[in-house]
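Translate structure to sequence.
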């Protein structure tokens, strides 16, 4: 709807200052989840063609395509037909076509879907480069670690509602850090110092960091003869925040989508 592909039933929208999104089409790059390239085209021509759809002259598009391929270690593929490429490589070429006209805004729908580890790394590198150049990049994903590594801000959506929108750090701060503790002694007065939410798993105790910090607890453990062998404080990740904000059912749906995606990429 924001890109003008479908029209809203009510309300208003504005894209880069334009009330009609198509007026901003030449400064926007969009990569849909379902992709398609002409198999007989060479990589250079495919990239240039996609740029031409956004108003970029073909000759300039060909030059930029060759540079993009060379900069990303794909210079040998400049004259290879699309039909000779792997699925992951073809998706990478389509991404080049999405940014070749140097847009101000790039929208990527599930860009990592079906990509192997090498092409995922290449895509992450491209996203960082685009962001560093001043381009705004918006992408949807059900792979949380991609969002955690790449995004400054996230929107967490569950049941069609935005449950959170803001900085990644603020989402993670919804949960308190977790303490992981291993002691030499199994019993003793020190156990009275453990928080009520402490749970034991094997040799380790795990619990939320107390509000008054770790020092009073550590002092009580030492005075009580715990024999502390290991103690670490781990900040919750974005996945933990997602589960807490969106709920366990949304997390299960996300995991199911991820497994289906892995199956497509196999």
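Result:
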């Amino acid at each position: 709807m924001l890109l003008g592909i479908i029209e809203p039933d009510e309300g208003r929208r504005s894209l880069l200052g334009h009330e009609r999104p198509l007026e901003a089409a030449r400064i926007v790059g969009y990569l849909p989840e379902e992709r398609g390239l002409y198999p007989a085209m060479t990589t250079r021509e495919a990239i240039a063609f996609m740029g031409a759809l956004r108003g970029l002259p073909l000759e300039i598009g060909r030059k930029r395509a060759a540079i993009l391929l060379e900069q990303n270690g794909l210079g040998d593929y400049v004259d290879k037909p699309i039909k000779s490429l792997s699925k992951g490589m073809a998706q990478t070429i389509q991404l080049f076509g999405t940014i070749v006209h140097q847009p101000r805004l790039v929208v990527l729908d599930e860009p990592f879907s079906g990509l192997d580890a090498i092409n995922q790394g290449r895509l992450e590198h491209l996203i960082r480069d685009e962001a560093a150049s001043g381009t705004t990049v918006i992408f949807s994903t059900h792979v949380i670690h991609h969002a955690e590594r790449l995004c400054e801000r996230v929107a967490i959506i569950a049941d069609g509602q935005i449950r959170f929108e803001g900085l990644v750090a603020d989402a993670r701060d919804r949960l308190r850090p977790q303490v992981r503790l291993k002691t030499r002694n199994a019993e003793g007065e020190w156990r009275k110092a453990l928080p009520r939410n402490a749970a034991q798993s094997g040799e380790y105790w795990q619990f939320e960091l107390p509000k008054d910090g770790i020092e009073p607890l550590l002092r009580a453990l030492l005075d009580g003869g715990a024999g502390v062998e290991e103690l670490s404080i781990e900040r919750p990740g974005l996945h933990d925040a997602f589960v807490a904000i969106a709920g366990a059912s949304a997390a299960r749906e996300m995991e199911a989508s991820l497994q289906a995606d892995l199956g497509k990429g196999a």
